[in-house]
Design a protein that fits this description.
There is one protein chain. By secondary structure, the chain is of the alpha/beta class. It has 16 helices and 21 strands. The strands form 5 sheets. A 7-stranded mixed β-sheet has the order 19-20-17-16-15-18-21. The protein has a 6-stranded parallel β-sheet with strand order 2-1-3-4-5-6, with helices on both faces. The chain has a 3-stranded parallel β-sheet with strand order 7-10-11, sandwiched between helices. Strand 10, helix 9 and strand 11 form a beta-alpha-beta unit. 50% of the residues are buried.
Protein backbone atom coordinates (compact mmCIF):
# COMPACT_ATOMS: atom_id res chain seq x y z
CA UNK A 1 0.00 0.00 0.00
CA UNK A 2 1.30 3.44 -0.90
CA UNK A 3 1.55 5.81 2.06
CA UNK A 4 0.22 9.36 1.87
CA UNK A 5 3.77 10.64 2.43
CA UNK A 6 4.98 8.74 -0.65
CA UNK A 7 2.11 10.10 -2.73
CA UNK A 8 2.83 13.67 -1.64
CA UNK A 9 6.22 13.49 -3.38
CA UNK A 10 4.63 13.53 -6.81
CA UNK A 11 4.38 17.26 -7.50
CA UNK A 12 5.33 20.65 -6.12
CA UNK A 13 2.08 21.95 -4.63
CA UNK A 14 3.10 25.55 -5.43
CA UNK A 15 3.06 24.81 -9.16
CA UNK A 16 0.05 22.55 -9.70
CA UNK A 17 0.12 20.39 -12.78
CA UNK A 18 -2.98 19.38 -14.70
CA UNK A 19 -4.19 15.85 -15.43
CA UNK A 20 -6.66 14.14 -17.73
CA UNK A 21 -7.96 10.57 -17.42
CA UNK A 22 -9.43 8.65 -20.34
CA UNK A 23 -11.48 5.67 -19.25
CA UNK A 24 -12.50 2.64 -21.30
CA UNK A 25 -14.50 -0.47 -20.44
CA UNK A 26 -16.63 -1.57 -17.54
CA UNK A 27 -17.98 0.04 -14.38
CA UNK A 28 -14.98 -1.27 -12.46
CA UNK A 29 -12.68 0.81 -14.66
CA UNK A 30 -14.86 3.88 -14.24
CA UNK A 31 -14.72 3.49 -10.47
CA UNK A 32 -10.95 2.90 -10.62
CA UNK A 33 -10.66 6.20 -12.51
CA UNK A 34 -12.40 7.96 -9.62
CA UNK A 35 -9.63 6.61 -7.40
CA UNK A 36 -6.91 7.67 -9.85
CA UNK A 37 -8.39 11.17 -9.80
CA UNK A 38 -8.39 11.13 -6.01
CA UNK A 39 -4.76 10.00 -5.90
CA UNK A 40 -3.60 12.66 -8.33
CA UNK A 41 -5.51 15.44 -6.59
CA UNK A 42 -4.15 14.36 -3.21
CA UNK A 43 -0.70 14.60 -4.81
CA UNK A 44 -1.40 18.19 -5.87
CA UNK A 45 -2.56 17.84 -9.47
CA UNK A 46 -5.65 19.65 -10.78
CA UNK A 47 -7.96 18.59 -13.56
CA UNK A 48 -7.37 19.92 -17.04
CA UNK A 49 -10.14 22.01 -18.59
CA UNK A 50 -13.09 20.11 -19.99
CA UNK A 51 -12.47 19.12 -23.59
CA UNK A 52 -8.71 19.62 -23.27
CA UNK A 53 -8.18 16.50 -25.43
CA UNK A 54 -4.68 15.67 -24.27
CA UNK A 55 -3.60 19.20 -23.46
CA UNK A 56 -2.57 18.34 -19.90
CA UNK A 57 0.64 17.78 -17.97
CA UNK A 58 -0.36 14.17 -17.28
CA UNK A 59 -2.64 12.06 -19.46
CA UNK A 60 -3.72 8.70 -18.02
CA UNK A 61 -5.29 5.92 -20.09
CA UNK A 62 -7.32 3.50 -17.96
CA UNK A 63 -7.68 0.66 -20.44
CA UNK A 64 -9.90 -2.32 -21.18
CA UNK A 65 -8.73 -5.55 -22.82
CA UNK A 66 -11.97 -7.40 -23.49
CA UNK A 67 -12.46 -6.34 -27.11
CA UNK A 68 -10.44 -7.63 -30.03
CA UNK A 69 -9.24 -4.20 -31.15
CA UNK A 70 -8.57 -2.74 -27.69
CA UNK A 71 -4.82 -2.52 -28.27
CA UNK A 72 -5.24 -0.88 -31.69
CA UNK A 73 -7.43 1.77 -30.12
CA UNK A 74 -4.90 2.43 -27.37
CA UNK A 75 -1.88 2.68 -29.67
CA UNK A 76 -3.79 4.92 -32.05
CA UNK A 77 -4.56 7.32 -29.21
CA UNK A 78 -1.00 7.16 -27.93
CA UNK A 79 0.29 7.89 -31.42
CA UNK A 80 -1.85 11.02 -31.67
CA UNK A 81 -0.37 12.27 -28.39
CA UNK A 82 3.27 11.67 -29.37
CA UNK A 83 3.82 14.99 -31.23
CA UNK A 84 2.07 16.93 -28.50
CA UNK A 85 4.29 15.35 -25.86
CA UNK A 86 7.39 16.16 -27.96
CA UNK A 87 6.38 19.82 -28.07
CA UNK A 88 5.40 20.09 -24.39
CA UNK A 89 8.36 19.70 -22.01
CA UNK A 90 7.53 17.79 -18.86
CA UNK A 91 4.33 16.20 -20.18
CA UNK A 92 3.82 12.59 -19.00
CA UNK A 93 1.66 9.74 -20.28
CA UNK A 94 0.58 6.79 -18.15
CA UNK A 95 -1.23 3.60 -19.14
CA UNK A 96 -3.11 1.48 -16.60
CA UNK A 97 -6.00 -0.95 -16.46
CA UNK A 98 -6.58 -4.39 -17.94
CA UNK A 99 -4.62 -3.90 -21.17
CA UNK A 100 -1.63 -2.67 -19.17
CA UNK A 101 -1.87 -5.73 -16.94
CA UNK A 102 -1.96 -7.91 -20.05
CA UNK A 103 0.63 -6.27 -22.33
CA UNK A 104 3.16 -4.98 -19.76
CA UNK A 105 6.48 -4.26 -21.49
CA UNK A 106 4.86 -4.32 -24.94
CA UNK A 107 3.37 -0.89 -24.40
CA UNK A 108 6.68 0.89 -23.93
CA UNK A 109 8.19 -1.00 -26.86
CA UNK A 110 5.41 0.06 -29.22
CA UNK A 111 5.07 3.54 -27.69
CA UNK A 112 8.43 4.47 -26.11
CA UNK A 113 7.14 7.95 -25.25
CA UNK A 114 4.91 6.43 -22.53
CA UNK A 115 6.29 7.25 -19.07
CA UNK A 116 4.39 4.89 -16.76
CA UNK A 117 2.68 1.50 -17.12
CA UNK A 118 0.80 0.17 -14.08
CA UNK A 119 -1.63 -2.70 -13.57
CA UNK A 120 -5.03 -3.36 -12.08
CA UNK A 121 -3.58 -4.37 -8.71
CA UNK A 122 -1.41 -1.34 -7.95
CA UNK A 123 -3.27 1.78 -9.06
CA UNK A 124 -2.22 3.41 -5.79
CA UNK A 125 1.36 3.65 -7.09
CA UNK A 126 0.56 6.06 -9.95
CA UNK A 127 1.76 9.35 -8.34
CA UNK A 128 5.03 7.76 -7.15
CA UNK A 129 5.66 6.14 -10.54
CA UNK A 130 5.11 9.47 -12.31
CA UNK A 131 7.60 11.16 -10.01
CA UNK A 132 10.12 8.32 -10.42
CA UNK A 133 9.81 8.51 -14.22
CA UNK A 134 10.40 12.26 -14.08
CA UNK A 135 13.46 12.02 -11.83
CA UNK A 136 15.05 9.01 -13.54
CA UNK A 137 14.02 10.15 -17.04
CA UNK A 138 12.99 6.64 -18.08
CA UNK A 139 9.77 4.69 -18.31
CA UNK A 140 8.50 2.97 -15.19
CA UNK A 141 6.68 -0.34 -15.65
CA UNK A 142 5.26 -1.82 -12.47
CA UNK A 143 2.67 -4.60 -12.65
CA UNK A 144 1.68 -6.22 -9.37
CA UNK A 145 0.67 -9.88 -9.66
CA UNK A 146 -1.84 -9.69 -6.83
CA UNK A 147 -3.83 -7.04 -5.03
CA UNK A 148 -1.65 -4.88 -2.79
CA UNK A 149 -4.51 -3.21 -0.91
CA UNK A 150 -8.25 -3.13 -1.48
CA UNK A 151 -8.77 -0.17 -3.82
CA UNK A 152 -11.44 1.42 -1.65
CA UNK A 153 -8.75 2.39 0.85
CA UNK A 154 -7.42 4.88 -1.73
CA UNK A 155 -8.56 8.49 -1.99
CA UNK A 156 -11.49 8.89 -4.37
CA UNK A 157 -12.81 11.84 -6.35
CA UNK A 158 -16.41 10.86 -7.04
CA UNK A 159 -18.17 12.28 -10.06
CA UNK A 160 -21.65 12.51 -8.56
CA UNK A 161 -22.82 14.23 -5.40
CA UNK A 162 -25.97 12.14 -5.12
CA UNK A 163 -25.07 8.64 -6.43
CA UNK A 164 -21.98 6.51 -5.93
CA UNK A 165 -20.37 3.19 -6.74
CA UNK A 166 -19.31 1.10 -3.74
CA UNK A 167 -16.97 -1.78 -4.55
CA UNK A 168 -17.62 -4.92 -2.50
CA UNK A 169 -15.20 -7.29 -4.25
CA UNK A 170 -12.54 -7.41 -6.94
CA UNK A 171 -11.62 -10.25 -9.27
CA UNK A 172 -13.60 -13.26 -10.41
CA UNK A 173 -13.48 -17.03 -9.83
CA UNK A 174 -15.32 -17.96 -13.02
CA UNK A 175 -13.60 -19.40 -16.10
CA UNK A 176 -15.87 -18.28 -18.95
CA UNK A 177 -14.12 -19.11 -22.21
CA UNK A 178 -14.80 -15.70 -23.77
CA UNK A 179 -13.57 -13.58 -20.86
CA UNK A 180 -10.06 -12.51 -19.96
CA UNK A 181 -11.02 -10.54 -16.85
CA UNK A 182 -10.14 -13.25 -14.26
CA UNK A 183 -6.62 -13.46 -15.72
CA UNK A 184 -6.19 -9.69 -15.39
CA UNK A 185 -8.15 -8.88 -12.24
CA UNK A 186 -7.25 -12.09 -10.39
CA UNK A 187 -9.27 -14.34 -8.11
CA UNK A 188 -12.16 -12.85 -6.20
CA UNK A 189 -11.26 -10.96 -3.06
CA UNK A 190 -14.12 -9.86 -0.84
CA UNK A 191 -14.11 -6.71 1.20
CA UNK A 192 -15.09 -6.83 4.87
CA UNK A 193 -18.82 -6.17 5.33
CA UNK A 194 -18.11 -3.65 8.08
CA UNK A 195 -15.84 -1.66 5.78
CA UNK A 196 -18.47 -1.63 3.03
CA UNK A 197 -21.20 -0.41 5.38
CA UNK A 198 -18.87 2.20 6.89
CA UNK A 199 -18.16 3.59 3.42
CA UNK A 200 -21.87 3.70 2.58
CA UNK A 201 -22.69 5.46 5.85
CA UNK A 202 -19.95 8.01 5.19
CA UNK A 203 -21.29 8.62 1.68
CA UNK A 204 -24.82 9.09 3.00
CA UNK A 205 -23.40 11.54 5.53
CA UNK A 206 -22.01 13.54 2.61
CA UNK A 207 -25.41 13.65 0.89
CA UNK A 208 -25.36 10.55 -1.33
CA UNK A 209 -28.79 8.92 -1.49
CA UNK A 210 -28.19 6.17 -4.07
CA UNK A 211 -25.42 3.57 -4.11
CA UNK A 212 -24.60 0.78 -6.53
CA UNK A 213 -22.79 -2.22 -5.08
CA UNK A 214 -20.10 -3.17 -7.55
CA UNK A 215 -18.26 -6.42 -8.21
CA UNK A 216 -17.06 -8.45 -11.16
CA UNK A 217 -19.48 -11.13 -9.93
CA UNK A 218 -21.29 -9.16 -7.29
CA UNK A 219 -23.62 -11.82 -5.87
CA UNK A 220 -20.74 -14.26 -5.33
CA UNK A 221 -19.80 -11.97 -2.45
CA UNK A 222 -19.08 -14.15 0.56
CA UNK A 223 -17.26 -16.95 -1.26
CA UNK A 224 -13.94 -15.50 -0.13
CA UNK A 225 -15.11 -15.27 3.49
CA UNK A 226 -17.05 -18.55 3.58
CA UNK A 227 -20.62 -17.23 3.87
CA UNK A 228 -22.99 -18.17 1.04
CA UNK A 229 -25.65 -15.75 2.29
CA UNK A 230 -23.29 -12.81 2.76
CA UNK A 231 -24.69 -10.88 -0.21
CA UNK A 232 -28.32 -11.10 0.88
CA UNK A 233 -27.25 -10.10 4.40
CA UNK A 234 -25.41 -7.10 2.93
CA UNK A 235 -28.53 -6.01 1.03
CA UNK A 236 -30.60 -6.22 4.21
CA UNK A 237 -27.96 -4.28 6.14
CA UNK A 238 -28.14 -1.53 3.52
CA UNK A 239 -31.86 -1.31 4.29
CA UNK A 240 -31.06 -0.26 7.84
CA UNK A 241 -28.95 2.76 6.83
CA UNK A 242 -30.99 5.90 7.48
CA UNK A 243 -30.97 8.33 4.57
CA UNK A 244 -30.01 5.72 1.97
CA UNK A 245 -32.93 5.82 -0.47
CA UNK A 246 -31.81 3.58 -3.32
CA UNK A 247 -29.61 0.49 -3.50
CA UNK A 248 -28.64 -1.21 -6.77
CA UNK A 249 -26.01 -3.80 -7.66
CA UNK A 250 -24.15 -5.00 -10.74
CA UNK A 251 -23.41 -7.46 -12.16
CA UNK A 252 -24.67 -10.76 -10.74
CA UNK A 253 -24.13 -14.25 -12.16
CA UNK A 254 -27.04 -16.71 -12.53
CA UNK A 255 -24.94 -19.47 -10.92
CA UNK A 256 -24.85 -17.61 -7.59
CA UNK A 257 -28.32 -16.05 -7.71
CA UNK A 258 -30.04 -17.76 -4.80
CA UNK A 259 -33.49 -17.54 -3.26
CA UNK A 260 -32.21 -15.62 -0.23
CA UNK A 261 -31.04 -12.82 -2.55
CA UNK A 262 -34.47 -12.63 -4.18
CA UNK A 263 -36.10 -12.49 -0.74
CA UNK A 264 -33.72 -9.73 0.39
CA UNK A 265 -34.50 -7.70 -2.74
CA UNK A 266 -38.24 -8.07 -2.20
CA UNK A 267 -38.21 -7.38 1.53
CA UNK A 268 -35.72 -4.48 1.70
CA UNK A 269 -37.57 -1.27 0.73
CA UNK A 270 -34.55 0.67 -0.50
CA UNK A 271 -33.28 -2.16 -2.76
CA UNK A 272 -34.63 -1.15 -6.14
CA UNK A 273 -36.87 -3.37 -8.32
CA UNK A 274 -34.19 -3.71 -10.96
CA UNK A 275 -31.98 -6.63 -11.93
CA UNK A 276 -29.22 -6.88 -14.52
CA UNK A 277 -28.81 -10.62 -15.15
CA UNK A 278 -26.36 -11.59 -17.93
CA UNK A 279 -27.73 -14.34 -20.18
CA UNK A 280 -25.00 -14.47 -22.87
CA UNK A 281 -26.83 -17.23 -24.80
CA UNK A 282 -30.12 -19.08 -24.63
CA UNK A 283 -28.61 -22.26 -26.05
CA UNK A 284 -27.53 -24.95 -23.59
CA UNK A 285 -24.91 -26.10 -26.09
CA UNK A 286 -23.38 -22.64 -26.38
CA UNK A 287 -23.60 -22.03 -22.64
CA UNK A 288 -21.62 -25.22 -22.09
CA UNK A 289 -19.00 -24.09 -24.62
CA UNK A 290 -18.87 -20.72 -22.87
CA UNK A 291 -18.32 -22.61 -19.61
CA UNK A 292 -21.35 -20.93 -18.06
CA UNK A 293 -22.61 -23.02 -15.15
CA UNK A 294 -26.36 -22.69 -15.81
CA UNK A 295 -28.74 -23.65 -18.61
CA UNK A 296 -31.78 -22.00 -20.18
CA UNK A 297 -34.26 -23.65 -17.81
CA UNK A 298 -32.32 -22.53 -14.73
CA UNK A 299 -32.04 -18.98 -16.07
CA UNK A 300 -35.73 -18.61 -16.88
CA UNK A 301 -36.54 -20.12 -13.49
CA UNK A 302 -34.65 -17.30 -11.77
CA UNK A 303 -36.51 -14.70 -13.85
CA UNK A 304 -39.83 -16.32 -12.91
CA UNK A 305 -38.97 -16.27 -9.20
CA UNK A 306 -37.86 -12.63 -9.33
CA UNK A 307 -41.08 -11.57 -11.07
CA UNK A 308 -43.19 -13.54 -8.58
CA UNK A 309 -41.51 -11.76 -5.67
CA UNK A 310 -41.12 -8.33 -7.34
CA UNK A 311 -43.88 -7.97 -9.97
CA UNK A 312 -42.71 -4.59 -11.31
CA UNK A 313 -39.01 -5.50 -11.54
CA UNK A 314 -37.25 -4.34 -14.71
CA UNK A 315 -34.79 -7.01 -15.84
CA UNK A 316 -31.92 -6.27 -18.22
CA UNK A 317 -29.26 -8.56 -19.63
CA UNK A 318 -26.12 -9.11 -21.72
CA UNK A 319 -26.20 -11.33 -24.82
CA UNK A 320 -23.36 -12.42 -27.12
CA UNK A 321 -24.26 -13.28 -30.72
CA UNK A 322 -22.05 -15.44 -32.93
CA UNK A 323 -20.03 -17.34 -30.32
CA UNK A 324 -17.81 -19.98 -32.03
CA UNK A 325 -19.89 -22.97 -33.08
CA UNK A 326 -23.24 -21.21 -32.66
CA UNK A 327 -25.72 -22.78 -35.09
CA UNK A 328 -28.97 -21.34 -36.38
CA UNK A 329 -30.78 -23.63 -33.93
CA UNK A 330 -28.63 -22.28 -31.08
CA UNK A 331 -29.46 -18.72 -32.09
CA UNK A 332 -33.18 -19.55 -32.21
CA UNK A 333 -32.89 -20.75 -28.61
CA UNK A 334 -31.51 -17.32 -27.69
CA UNK A 335 -34.46 -15.63 -29.41
CA UNK A 336 -36.82 -17.99 -27.55
CA UNK A 337 -35.24 -17.11 -24.20
CA UNK A 338 -35.47 -13.39 -24.96
CA UNK A 339 -39.16 -13.70 -25.80
CA UNK A 340 -39.80 -15.70 -22.61
CA UNK A 341 -37.79 -13.42 -20.32
CA UNK A 342 -39.15 -10.15 -21.78
CA UNK A 343 -36.18 -8.01 -20.83
CA UNK A 344 -36.67 -4.29 -20.35
CA UNK A 345 -33.37 -3.73 -22.18
CA UNK A 346 -30.48 -5.81 -23.47
CA UNK A 347 -26.81 -5.03 -23.96
CA UNK A 348 -26.24 -6.98 -27.16
CA UNK A 349 -22.77 -7.82 -28.47
CA UNK A 350 -21.36 -9.39 -31.58
CA UNK A 351 -18.75 -11.92 -30.47
CA UNK A 352 -15.21 -10.71 -30.92
CA UNK A 353 -12.06 -12.58 -30.05
CA UNK A 354 -10.45 -11.73 -26.74
CA UNK A 355 -6.77 -12.56 -27.19
CA UNK A 356 -5.71 -14.95 -24.46
CA UNK A 357 -9.11 -16.59 -24.01
CA UNK A 358 -9.96 -20.21 -24.94
CA UNK A 359 -12.76 -19.05 -27.25
CA UNK A 360 -10.30 -17.13 -29.42
CA UNK A 361 -8.76 -20.39 -30.65
CA UNK A 362 -11.94 -22.43 -30.94
CA UNK A 363 -12.89 -23.95 -34.27
CA UNK A 364 -16.04 -22.93 -36.15
CA UNK A 365 -15.59 -19.18 -35.81
CA UNK A 366 -18.76 -17.67 -37.28
CA UNK A 367 -18.43 -15.56 -40.46
CA UNK A 368 -18.88 -11.85 -39.86
CA UNK A 369 -21.88 -11.56 -42.19
CA UNK A 370 -23.72 -14.34 -40.33
CA UNK A 371 -23.01 -12.73 -36.97
CA UNK A 372 -24.20 -9.36 -38.27
CA UNK A 373 -27.45 -10.80 -39.62
CA UNK A 374 -28.21 -12.62 -36.35
CA UNK A 375 -27.33 -9.53 -34.36
CA UNK A 376 -29.78 -7.42 -36.34
CA UNK A 377 -32.54 -10.01 -35.90
CA UNK A 378 -31.95 -10.12 -32.15
CA UNK A 379 -31.92 -6.34 -31.85
CA UNK A 380 -35.24 -6.14 -33.74
CA UNK A 381 -36.88 -8.70 -31.42
CA UNK A 382 -35.56 -7.02 -28.27
CA UNK A 383 -36.50 -3.56 -29.53
CA UNK A 384 -40.10 -4.68 -29.95
CA UNK A 385 -40.16 -6.24 -26.47
CA UNK A 386 -38.59 -3.15 -24.86
CA UNK A 387 -41.24 -0.97 -26.43
CA UNK A 388 -44.07 -3.26 -25.37
CA UNK A 389 -42.74 -3.42 -21.79
CA UNK A 390 -42.34 0.36 -21.67
CA UNK A 391 -45.91 0.88 -22.91
CA UNK A 392 -47.08 -0.95 -19.78
CA UNK A 393 -45.65 1.96 -17.77
CA UNK A 394 -48.01 4.53 -19.34
CA UNK A 395 -50.45 5.82 -16.75
CA UNK A 396 -48.28 4.84 -13.79
CA UNK A 397 -47.39 7.42 -11.16
CA UNK A 398 -43.74 7.06 -10.21
CA UNK A 399 -41.02 8.76 -8.21
CA UNK A 400 -37.94 9.85 -10.13
CA UNK A 401 -34.53 10.78 -8.81
CA UNK A 402 -33.55 13.77 -10.92
CA UNK A 403 -30.43 13.02 -12.93
CA UNK A 404 -27.64 15.19 -14.27
CA UNK A 405 -26.72 15.05 -17.94
CA UNK A 406 -28.87 12.06 -18.94
CA UNK A 407 -31.30 13.91 -21.20
CA UNK A 408 -29.32 15.08 -24.22
CA UNK A 409 -32.26 17.09 -25.58
CA UNK A 410 -33.51 18.46 -22.26
CA UNK A 411 -32.39 22.01 -23.06
CA UNK A 412 -34.23 22.13 -26.38
CA UNK A 413 -37.37 20.40 -25.07
CA UNK A 414 -37.51 22.30 -21.73
CA UNK A 415 -37.53 19.00 -19.89
CA UNK A 416 -35.53 17.39 -17.14
CA UNK A 417 -34.65 13.71 -16.80
CA UNK A 418 -34.62 11.22 -13.98
CA UNK A 419 -34.43 7.55 -13.11
CA UNK A 420 -37.41 5.54 -11.90
CA UNK A 421 -36.90 3.01 -9.12
CA UNK A 422 -36.58 0.30 -11.79
CA UNK A 423 -33.88 2.44 -13.48
CA UNK A 424 -35.98 3.37 -16.52
CA UNK A 425 -35.04 6.75 -17.94
CA UNK A 426 -37.91 9.26 -17.82
CA UNK A 427 -37.94 12.74 -19.37
CA UNK A 428 -40.41 15.04 -17.61
CA UNK A 429 -41.77 18.56 -17.96
CA UNK A 430 -39.64 21.09 -16.14
CA UNK A 431 -41.66 22.47 -13.20
CA UNK A 432 -41.81 26.15 -12.26
CA UNK A 433 -39.97 25.57 -8.98
CA UNK A 434 -36.28 24.75 -8.83
CA UNK A 435 -35.41 21.05 -9.14
CA UNK A 436 -31.85 19.87 -8.59
CA UNK A 437 -30.09 16.60 -9.47
CA UNK A 438 -30.62 14.31 -6.50
CA UNK A 439 -34.07 15.73 -5.70
CA UNK A 440 -37.12 13.49 -6.12
CA UNK A 441 -40.16 14.30 -8.24
CA UNK A 442 -43.45 12.47 -8.68
CA UNK A 443 -44.81 12.26 -12.23
CA UNK A 444 -47.33 10.36 -14.34
CA UNK A 445 -45.97 8.52 -17.39
CA UNK A 446 -47.78 9.63 -20.56
CA UNK A 447 -45.74 8.13 -23.43
CA UNK A 448 -43.38 5.23 -24.03
CA UNK A 449 -40.51 4.78 -26.49
CA UNK A 450 -38.27 1.69 -26.62
CA UNK A 451 -35.51 3.26 -24.53
CA UNK A 452 -37.19 6.01 -22.51
CA UNK A 453 -40.48 7.25 -21.10
CA UNK A 454 -42.10 10.68 -21.13
CA UNK A 455 -44.10 12.44 -18.40
CA UNK A 456 -45.56 15.36 -20.34
CA UNK A 457 -48.03 16.56 -17.72
CA UNK A 458 -47.27 18.77 -14.73
CA UNK A 459 -45.00 17.43 -12.01
CA UNK A 460 -47.22 16.15 -9.21
CA UNK A 461 -44.75 16.67 -6.37
CA UNK A 462 -41.21 17.88 -5.73
CA UNK A 463 -39.24 16.65 -2.73
CA UNK A 464 -36.04 18.53 -2.02
CA UNK A 465 -33.41 16.18 -0.61
CA UNK A 466 -30.07 16.16 1.14
CA UNK A 467 -28.69 14.73 -2.10
CA UNK A 468 -29.92 17.83 -3.94
CA UNK A 469 -28.31 19.99 -1.25
CA UNK A 470 -25.04 18.11 -1.78
CA UNK A 471 -25.23 18.66 -5.55
CA UNK A 472 -25.91 22.36 -5.04
CA UNK A 473 -22.97 22.69 -2.64
CA UNK A 474 -20.59 20.90 -5.00
CA UNK A 475 -21.74 23.02 -7.94
CA UNK A 476 -21.12 26.19 -5.95
CA UNK A 477 -17.64 24.97 -4.97
CA UNK A 478 -16.80 24.21 -8.61
CA UNK A 479 -17.96 27.64 -9.69
CA UNK A 480 -15.75 29.23 -7.04
CA UNK A 481 -12.61 27.50 -8.32
CA UNK A 482 -10.38 29.16 -10.92
CA UNK A 483 -11.35 28.39 -14.50
CA UNK A 484 -9.66 25.40 -16.07
CA UNK A 485 -9.60 22.76 -13.39
CA UNK A 486 -12.64 20.67 -14.29
CA UNK A 487 -12.82 17.67 -16.55
CA UNK A 488 -15.85 15.44 -16.95
CA UNK A 489 -15.29 11.68 -16.78
CA UNK A 490 -18.07 9.21 -17.61
CA UNK A 491 -21.10 9.88 -15.43
CA UNK A 492 -21.26 7.96 -12.17
CA UNK A 493 -24.36 6.78 -10.40
CA UNK A 494 -26.92 4.15 -11.25
CA UNK A 495 -25.67 2.46 -14.42
CA UNK A 496 -28.00 3.43 -17.23
CA UNK A 497 -29.27 0.80 -19.67
CA UNK A 498 -27.93 1.58 -23.12
CA UNK A 499 -29.78 1.05 -26.39
CA UNK A 500 -29.56 -2.56 -27.49
CA UNK A 501 -27.63 -1.72 -30.63
CA UNK A 502 -24.73 0.05 -28.99
CA UNK A 503 -23.32 -2.59 -26.64
CA UNK A 504 -20.67 -0.50 -24.96
CA UNK A 505 -20.14 -2.60 -21.85
CA UNK A 506 -17.64 -5.40 -21.69
CA UNK A 507 -20.25 -8.13 -21.58
CA UNK A 508 -18.06 -10.44 -19.57
CA UNK A 509 -20.18 -11.02 -16.48
Amino acid sequence: MTSSSDRSLAVDVHVPKSYEIRTYGCQMNVHDSERLSGLLEEAGYVRAPEGSDGDADVVVFNTCAVRENADNRLYGNLGRLAPRKASRPGMQIAVGGCLAQKDRDTITKKAPWVDVVFGTHNIGKLPVLLERARVQEEAQVEIAESLEAFPSTLPTRRESAYAAWVSISVGCNNTCTFCIVPALRGKEKDRRTGDILAEIEALVGEGVSEITLLGQNVNAYGSDIGDREAFSKLLRACGAIEGLERVRFTSPHPRDFTDDVIAAMAETPNVMPQLHMPLQSGSDTVLKAMRRSYRQERYLGIIEKVRAAIPHAAITTDIIVGFPGETEEDFEQTLHTVREARFAQAFTFQYSKRPGTPAATMEDQIPKEVVQARYERLVAVQEEISWEENKKQVGRTIELMVAEGEGRKDGATHRLSGRAPDNRLVHFTKPDQEVRPGDVVTVEVTYAAPHHLLAEGPVLDVRRTRAGDAWEKRTAEKAAKPAGVLLGLPKIGAPAPLPVATGSGCGCD
